[in-house]
Specification:
With 306 residues, the chain is mainly β. It has 3 helices and 21 strands.
Length: 306
C-alpha cells in the first residue's frame, strides 16, 4: 500500500501543470554600443531593490526648472512594443509645490484639461489617476478638502501630498472617508498598483489568472517614488514611425511597466491613465516641451515653483 501511495504521488507530481508564467516577452534598451536586453518575462524580478544599471547608464537628465528634469529611453520589446520611446520626468517635491488641477467644460460637464491648457507657471504637468466617463475615479482631495470619496480595490493606490511637500503612499483597500487627512494638501487614487512594499511587484502582476490582463499592450503612463524621495513619471510613446505617429496606443504590458518603474529605481508605483489620454508638460514658455494626448481628462498633477 505504501509503495502504491508513493507511486501515485510521483505520478501526480510528474503530471501536474507547471505554475502559470507571464506571457513571453523581453525588453532591450538602446545604448551607445547597440541594443542591450535588460528584462525577460521568464526571469522577471519580483522585488526591485535598486535601479537597473543598464538603464541608469543611458539616462541623460536635462534640467528644465529647479527640482525638475527629464530624460529619454528607447526600448525594443515584443509585438507592438518593438519600438517604444520612454519620457521620464524626475521631480523633487521638496523644491516645487505639487497640486491637482481639474477642468470641465461649461454646460456639458465633460473633462476639459490638457497640457495645452496647463497654468502658465507650471514647470511640470501630467494627467493624474484614471477616470470614469467625465469624472476622476476614486479618492480626490483638492486644496485640503475631499472632492471625491475613496474607490475600492486590492490594486488601488493613493498618492498623498502634504503641506510641506512630503509624499505618502497608501496601497489597497486602506483609504476610507475617515482616514486621517491632517495636513493633506492634495491626493488622488489610481490603479493598478505596480510596485509596493519597497519595490515588490504585486502577485497579481507576476502571473495570469489573478484578475489583470497581462498580455494587453498600450501606450502607458505611470508615477512612482524613488528611494531618495523624488518622483518618477514615465510616459511611453510608439517609436516605430517617427513622432508623427507616436500617439498610437502601442506599447508595454502592465507587467513590463512594473519592470520599467522598478528598473528606474521606484519603490512605490502605480499606473495612470495612458492610451490616448497620456500627456505631459515639462518647462515653461518657449522652452516648454509637450507630449499631447488625443483625449481631454478631468484631473492633472501640476508642479509650480515654490
Amino acid at each position: 500500500m505504501r509503495r502504491l501511495a508513493v507511486a501515485v504521488l510521483a505520478l501526480g507530481a510528474a503530471g501536474a501543470a507547471p505554475p502559470p508564467t507571464l506571457p513571453q516577452s523581453a525588453l532591450a534598451v538602446w545604448t551607445p554600443s547597440g541594443w542591450q536586453e535588460w528584462w525577460q518575462s521568464a526571469a522577471a524580478p519580483r522585488h526591485w531593490t535598486a535601479p537597473d544599471p543598464t538603464l541608469a547608464g543611458v539616462l541623460r537628465w536635462r534640467p528644465v526648472a529647479d527640482g525638475v528634469s527629464w530624460a529619454e529611453l528607447r526600448l525594443a520589446g515584443s509585438g507592438e512594443a518593438w519600438r517604444t520611446r520612454v519620457v521620464v520626468a524626475r521631480i523633487d517635491p521638496r523644491r516645487v509645490r505639487l497640486r491637482l488641477d481639474t477642468a470641465f467644460a461649461a454646460g456639458s460637464g465633460r473633462a476639459a484639461w490638457s497640457v495645452r491648457d496647463a497654468r502658465p507657471e507650471a514647470v511640470f504637468a501630467v494627467n493624474a489617476g484614471q477616470f470614469l466617463h467625465s469624472m476622476p475615479w476614486g479618492w480626490v482631495v483638492l486644496d485640503g478638502r475631499q472632492f471625491l470619496s475613496p474607490g475600492p480595490g486590492p490594486l488601488a493606490s493613493a498618492v498623498l501630498f502634504d503641506t510641506t511637500g512630503a509624499v505618502r503612499w497608501m496601497h489597497g483597500d486602506v483609504v476610507t472617508d475617515s482616514v486621517n487627512r491632517a495636513a493633506i494638501a492634495a491626493a488622488f487614487q489610481s490603479y493598478p498598483t505596480l510596485l509596493t512594499h519597497d519595490g515588490r511587484v504585486p502577485f497579481q502582476l507576476q502571473a495570469p489568472g489573478a484578475g489583470v490582463d497581462l498580455s494587453h499592450r498600450d501606450a502607458r503612463l505611470a508615477i512612482g517614488e524613488a528611494r531618495d524621495g523624488t518622483l518618477l513619471v514615465a510616459l511611453t510613446r510608439f517609436d516605430g514611425a517617427g513622432t508623427a505617429f507616436d500617439f498610437l496606443p502601442f506599447g508595454l504590458t502592465t507587467a513590463e511597466m512594473a519592470a520599467l518603474m522598478g528598473a528606474l529605481g521606484a519603490r512605490d508605483a502605480v499606473m495612470l491613465d495612458g492610451g490616448i489620454s497620456g500627456q505631459m508638460l515639462l518647462g515653461t514658455g518657449d522652452a516648454a516641451v509637450r507630449w499631447a494626448g488625443l483625449r481631454k481628462v478631468p484631473l492633472a498633477l501640476v508642479a509650480v515653483p515654490r
